[in-house]
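Quick one before lunch.
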Amino acid sequence: MSRTVYVNGDYLPEAEAKVSIFDRGFLMADGVYEVTSVLDGKLIDFGGHAKRLARSLAELEMTCPVSEAELLAMHRELVARNGIEQGMIYLQVTRGNPGDRSFLFPDPSLPGTVVAFTQNVPNLADAPAAKVGFKVISIPDLRWSRVDIKTVQLLYPSMGKVAAKKAGVDDSWFVDEAGSVTEGTSNNAYIVKGNRIITRALGSDILHGITRAAVLRFAAEAQFEVEERAFTIAEAQAADEAFSTAASIFVMPVVEIDGAAVGTGKPGPVAVRLREIYLDEMRKAAI
Ligand code: PDD
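Model of the N-(5'-phosphopyridoxyl)-D-alanine complex:
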């Protein structure tokens, strides 16, 4: 079935949606994006995603031609028009179409391009992968050093996913020059030792995950200790559990790293519990 998508104020059948070849998103990866999950036809943590979008735009001296209230209305409209019960809304804002290729930023008065579309994932909350967990490999983190900005430059993360697929696993975790895990290709990375949840501290070397913020809040409320610090692959392999978080996977147990089983090699109780708490609480707060 053809989706109805959004382009600069219009709702169109996906085959009719068009963006210029001069768009800076296309030529320069000069754009930012957000992925918001949908459960029960409602948006999960829209406020968090809108806030991070504003931050990404500000860091790149970009403005969004659409207000947060209009973005919310548009997200809801896409959910309704496409009959989404579970899935995701992808939103992208680029610096727009200056009419030619140039390395310089165009005049800030040029309106940016705003596109959005739905991805229908009927079993997002009940994903089969969450029952068995992800297997991951580690690869060097060769991304630029401002990955806290959620830009559409996803070539290296995409290569990381391909490397994982070639290795017969589900994802890659990136490792920095010091040998510490930064994050997954499209998710934040954690390990569990006893009652303690360990994840890299926020900085310019990881994306400030919206799921991460909520999961750490729920973990603290559930009396887990939360330690924000770097960890190595060896420490992760020796941990009781590991997991990843993102809007697209919520809390995903990680059961194998570079061929070594983590804990029992099955999804661990902490990750499973955090996934349940996350889904329960976020469903209650969905809008
Ligand atoms: N990715 N780290 C990276 C590199 C990411 O791309 C993402 C999200 C996250 C988790 O962020 P959040 O919890 O806000 O979804 C961490 C999205 C889902 C994607 O690119 O599809």
